Amino acid sequence: MVHTCMNVEESGCLFCLYEDDEQKLAKLRKIQSFIHGWLRRRKWKQVVEQYIKSPFSEGLRKRYTCVLEFLEGEKQYVQQIAVLITCFSRPLKMAASSKKPSCTLDDVNSICLNSEALLLLHQIFLEGLTARLESSPPLVLGDLLLTMLLPKLNIYQEYVRNHHYSLQVLTECCDILLDVEQTFVRKGDLIQILIEKPKERVTFKKFESFRRSDKDVARECFLFSYHLIVTTRGSDGKLHLEPNVGKIPMSEASLIEEPNEESTLERPCESASSVTTEQDTSYQGRDFKVVLSSKNLVTPVVIHFVAPTLSDKAAWISDLANCMNNAQFREIFKPLMANTSSINLP
Predict the structure, then answer these.
(1) Would the N or C end of the chain have less CB density within 10 A of its end CB?
(2) Domain 184-339 belongs to what architecture?
(3) CATH dotted code for 55-177
(4) Which residue numbers delimit the DH domain (predicted)?
């Protein structure tokens, strides 16, 4: 170790005092190296703390937070456009080719317009932004924004110009697709009695003690002002609308509260109906029937339901009777409502 001490007595240098003792010199060098390392680490820690507390570092942290929020917002935007296209735009375009479409193809194009072009553009931009963030925290993103989004500004201009008109068309289509006069009344679990053995049996706990036959099928029913929806819950947990009797218009239906005392009106259609006609007293008075008499049907269809309890049956019968009466009165007064506005529905 090199040192420049000229007078040992005046300087008090330990290296000069122990110049001939190699062991002590080695210890001194070790202590000196440790102190130098500690001083360097302390100095570096101070430099790092000063940098962290500096306005420049604070600005970088805020900027990187904004970049991460921008990335998250871009992911959500791409997901929302994908939902718009897959769940609304494409199904509506397919439905527009039907005989009586709720929305024409022009209406769908007016509402969604160039959403597919926007989806493709933002998917590419999201991939570029994600790749830029994977390497290191970016200091510059302007080139990515200018090179990808600025040349496609006309897509946004077309979308914004059409926004007001698309909202107007969407409002008109909602009036057609949604019946604002129809309200939800009740829902519940019922058993439908069939002749044929169903392909898949789904049970409810409240009916486990009651069901003894393959003719009994569990249904989840939803009653609205003008329709009764009959569904079956599949093994995947999703509800599936029953074919033929899944949507029963209340204006074309009638109610038989006590099937054991049913009138002769039902007997001619017993052979053509999809329900059993046996006089079964094992239901303990909890069963009732809904008769669907539509103009499109040659013979009426009878749907035989069984409620879990007598109180449930009474509630279903009361609500069904009210909905049927209101729907039938509505059909009677509907032509008059087109000519005058002074008549109110009961």
Answers:
(1) N
(2) Roll (2.30)
(3) 1.20.900.10
(4) 62-203
